[in-house]
Amino acid sequence: MSMLKEGRPTAPVAVEQGDAIPATFTGNRGLMLEEALIFELGDDRTTGVDLEPAPAAPSRLGGLDRSAPIGLAGLSEPETVRHYTRLSRQNYGIDLGVFPLGSCTMKHNPRLNESVARLPGFADVHPLQPVSTVQGALGVMEQLSDWLLKLTNMAAVALSPKAGAHGELCGLLAIRAALEAQGDARSVILVPESAHGTNPATAAFCGYRVEDIPATEDGRVNVAALTARLGPDVAAVMITNPNTCGLFERDMKVIADAVHGVGAFVYCDGANFNAIVGRVRPGDLGVDAMHINLHKTFSTPHGGGGPGSGPVVLSAALAPYAPLPFVERGEDGSLHLIEEETAGEHHAGSFGRMTAFHGQMGMYTRALTYMLSHGNDGLRQVSGDAVLNANYVLRSLEGVLDAPFGAAGPCMHEALFSDKGLAEGFSTIDVAKGLIDEGFHPMTMYFPLVVHGAMLVEPTETESKAGLDQFIGALRSVATRAKNGDPSLKGAPHFAPRRRLDETQAARKPVLSWTPPAPAEAAE
Ligand SMILES: *Cc1c(COP(=O)(O)O)cnc(C)c1O
Predict the structure, then answer these.
(1) How many domains does the chain have?
(2) Distance 45 CA to ligand 1 centre (A)
(3) How far is CA 442 from the centre of its chain?
(4) Residue of 106, 238, 276, 293 to mutate, ligand 1, most atoms within 8 A of C-beta
(5) pTM of this prediction?
C-alpha cells in the first residue's frame, strides 16, 4: 500500500466484510445513521415554537372541543431538521446516481425547468384568478398543447389528467363516450400480456371486461391472435409502443387498421414515448388516444405520489369528446379557458372533467421548458441517445445475463433480462439486492410478466458513458455472483439501513399508526 507524505494510506485498506464487524452502540454504521420514529424521539413537553398561552375565551365548538392531547410528537427545531435529514439520507434519488427502473424513465430533472417553474408569474397563479390576469399561464398551456400535438400528429389534447394511469382513464372515457354517442356501447377491451398493470386495471375500472392477447416468441403482440378476437363487442385495444419488453411494435399500423375495421378504437400507452419522440408520430400509426407521462418523456420530477402529469392526445374521431377544460384562442387574440359544454359548440359532446381545476401547472411549465431548451432536433437526439444507452447495457451484459429477445436485434430504450442461468435457488431478487450493496437502485423486477424473473433496465439518455460503465461493472459482478451461487448474495443488502423486508406483509398488513409503549410497571 502506498502512503502520502504524511503517512496516510492512499488506497483503502481491505477489511473483512460481513457479520464479523462488531455492532455499534448506536446502530449507526459510519455515516449511515439509524433513525427512530418521530414519535419515539419526541415528547409532548418539547416544542419548536414558543407561543403565548391562548387567552381564555368561551368555546364556540358546540361541545366538540378536543378533550385529550392531540398526540403529536414534540421536537425542537434542530431535532426536527436532523430527523428529516437523516431519513432523506436513507432514500435514493436520481440526483444520487443511476436509477435504472425500466418503464419508469428516471431521467435527470434539469435545473432550468425548476427555475422557470419558480418564476412568481407561474408559481403564484391561482386557478380561480380572472382569465385576463393569467394569459401567460394559459399561453404555456397553449404552447405545450401545440408541441404535444405536433410531436404526436394528433387532433386534440387533454392536459388535465394527473398521471399516466389517470390519462388511461381519460382516454377510455373518451372512447366510451364516442361509442355511446353512436348508440354502440361495447363490453370488451383487449390488452396484451406484457401490458403494465394499469392498463387492465383502468379497463376494468371503466366497467369493461379485459381479455388478454398473447405475445409472440419475439416479444411482440400476436397480431393473428388479436385480429382473430376482434368483433362487434370489442370497444378498444390498449397497446404499449414501444412495448414493455423494450421492443417497437412494428405492426401497429396493421393492428390499427384491423381494429378500426370493426369499429373499435386504439388506445396507445405512451409511457415509452421517450424512445421515439421526434422520430415517430403515433397519429401516423392509427392511434386514437395516448397518454404522455410528462414525468417520463419530458423530464418533470416523479413525485412520491405527488405531482405527475399525463396529458392525453386524441384523434379527430375522439376529439369531440375530450374533457374540459381546455384553452382556446379567441378572435381578439386573447386566450380563453373553455370550462363548460355549450350546445352547438364543437365541444358539446365533452364527457366531463378529469380534475377540479386545470391540472398540474408546475409540470406544464417544466415540460415546456424542456421542449424549448431541446428544440425539435434536441428531442430527436434524446430518443436516439436513450436507445443507444440501452443497447450499450444490453450488449455489455452478453454472456452474463440472459436477454430473452437480445438475439433478435437491438432493443429500444430499455434492456430486458431474465433469471435464466442463475444458480439453483438464486433469482432476480438476489441480483437486485446485490445492486443495493453496490450503491445502485435496482432495476424493475419481475415485470413484464411474459419473461421469467424479468429485470428491466432503462438507463435513459442522461447517463454518461462513465456512469453506465460503473453500473454495468456492478451488475456484471452481482450477476456473476448469482450465477456462481455465492451464498453471501443471499444475505444482501449487507450495507443498507435495512436488509430484506417482508414486502408482502408490508403491503397486505401495513402498520400505519403508532401505539405508545405501555408505561413501565412501577417496581414493587
Ligand atoms: C409508468 C407507466 C404507466 C403509468 O403511468 P403513471 O404516470 O405512473 O400513472 C403506464 N404504463 C406504463 C408502460 C408505464 O411505464
Answers:
(1) 2
(2) 45
(3) 15
(4) 293
(5) 0.90
